[in-house]
Amino acid sequence: MKKGHLRRLIACGALVGLGFGALSVKLFLIQIRDRDFLVSYAERQLRRTLVLRPKRGEILDAQGRPLAVSVEAPSLYANPQEIGNPREAARSLSPILGVPGAELERKLSGDRRYVWLQRKISPEEKRKIMDLEIDGLGFAAESRRFYPKRELASSLLGFVGVDEKGLSGVELAFEGQMGGRAGRVEIERDARGRSIHPEARVLLSPRAGADVRLTIDEVLQFIVEKELAAQVAQVGARRGIGVMVEPASGRVLAMASVPGFNPNAYERFPAERWREAALQEVYEPGSTFKLVTAAAYLEAGGDWRRMFFCEEGLLRLGGGYTLRDHKRFGWLSAEQVIVHSSNIGTYKLGMEVGSARLYRMARRFGFGEAMELGLPGQSGGILRPPARWSGTSLAAISIGQEVGVTPLQMVMAAAAIANGGVMPAPRLVEDVEREGQPVWLPARQEARRVVSPRTAALLAHTMRKVVAEGSGVQAEVPGYGAAGKTGTAQKVDRETKTYSRTKFVMSFVGFVPFKSPRLALLVAIDEGRAKEGAWGGSVAAPVWRRIAWQSLRYLRVPPEGARVLEVAGPAPSAPTPVSPKGSSLGERAFRLARTVHHVLHGSPSLPAPEERGH
């Protein structure tokens, strides 16, 4: 063998030897030194942990009827590495999902193995996509929050985001109870991201959320919203607010703000409609606050028969402040001052009381602090201490100006009078339950005495006279006897910073029946005008009457002198909820209205509007 050939053989052998040596070193590093790291890395590549969202708890009314539920809503995902023709796939999916084709094509052309195309699609959309038979698409089982009654109690219930987390209302306040506990499962995948084993290993089982049962009654809520909506439309109002409570227990039976919104598509409505106005809206109560001034006068030992001169309807005070009455009243007794809603007479009652006593009485009624219901964003209203009052504040606050209240605060004041001077703690949630068993109960707050039984009785009889012969005659409920107080408050003009001459909040607050109160109710109409003018007695009182009458009939409360309320036909069942697949608002309203009418009139048919007599 030639010497040159031998050197080449030796060189080749050395290179092969070095190659095998390097390979041996690499195998050593893989098998020995880096084994734990590589095994862990491979497991991460093969195994993936998925989070299983729990079923969100439902929101129920007092009778157990669903107001918010969770329904199946699959989410569409894709593995771009399995998509043969991204452009063609995007073109086919775009009209179904309502997503631009360019956006879908960009997602389908990426190098990721898992990408969301659309979260929580409808069953119909899923069916259409499956018919396309596109490789690389899949569906993840998720749920979507659904509100079967749509606008009903919308601002109270609130809504959830795409991740099923509460964003407002009851949904936000009870997120911890309704949200449940997420679960985790582990799956194994091959190099292309496909599942190896059909069964996933459960690491932590999900726990469904608990159900929240409210004190709200679905039918009473519908009655309030229906009548508010009708009046808002008729008088051209900006908004209508209604709150109904049970005087003896403080249970909130209805809480409405009209117009509302559909929480199934909350993003399509202005954000101002999301707020629960009954808890967050602060307004000057006007003459309804005269009940507080009257209570302070009576508690201070004032004589209800004492006569006050009402200055023939006009009284000029210092600082350019002028008091006017809607009529030229002369001498009125203290009781008549409230019955006929004299501003000048009420001011003189306030002068008898003094600022310190009037302030203390307002605080005793709960004004100036939030009435805790457990919901976010509750307002305590506006009630300045006497040290911050001006020279005309006593006159203004006596008649319901320079003070801000919430609708809930005002109706609870009426409930206290109806309850003999004892104010129950307002309650919105009955309990939180899982599988029919209570897991959480609201803290029971003790009722507290606000005024003496004598003062409460005198105020109640005066409120009865307001309806029978005073400014609230249009609130009378035949057969039951209503008691209440009208209110017409000027709104502050934001531009001039003075009281507007054209914009008012018109309200009526009271209770019914007079002898054995079952309902305390407030109705407030924000702006608008009736034929008789912009007065609480002409705009809010008629709505109050219609709501009260229908509600008493639904609750089967017999009129005075009757043992039972006779209603033809059996008791109605709960209204049929709207299907998650969709139903028109008119259909939902018709079904619920038919149920209400069946209760009130004993007939399964719904009469034409002109036959209702409202």
In words, what does this structure look like?
The protein is of the alpha+beta class and 614 residues long. The protein folds into 2 domains: 40-72 and 147-213, Penicillin-binding protein 2a (Domain 2) (Alpha-Beta Complex), CATH 3.90.1310; 218-564, Beta-lactamase, CATH 3.40.710.10. The protein has 19 helices and 23 strands. The strands form 7 sheets. A 6-stranded mixed beta sheet has the order 7-3-2-10-18-19, with no helix packed on it. Helix 3 (86-97) crosses helix 4 (101-108), helix 3 runs antiparallel to helix 5 and helix 11 crosses helix 14 (355-364). The protein is elongated. Mean pLDDT is 84; it is low at 567-576 and 581-614.
SSE topology:
Layout: H1 3-33, H2 35-46, E1 47-52, E2 59-60, E3 66-72, E4 75-78, H3 86-97, H4 101-108, E5 115-118, H5 123-132, E6 137-140, E7 143-146, H6 154-157, H7 169-173, H8 175-178, E8 183-188, E9 201-204, E10 211-214, H9 218-235, E11 239-245, E12 252-258, H10 277-280, H11 290-299, E13 307-309, E14 314-316, E15 322-324, E16 331-333, H12 334-339, H13 343-353, H14 355-364, H15 393-398, H16 407-418, E17 422-423, E18 429-434, E19 437-440, E20 448-449, H17 453-469, E21 483-492, E22 499-512, E23 519-526, H18 536-554, H19 585-601
Parallel strand pairs: 2-10
Antiparallel strand pairs: 1-8, 2-3, 3-7, 4-5, 4-6, 8-9, 10-18, 11-12, 11-23, 13-16, 14-15, 17-20, 18-19, 21-22, 22-23
Helix pairs in contact: 3-4, 3-5, 9-18, 11-13, 11-14
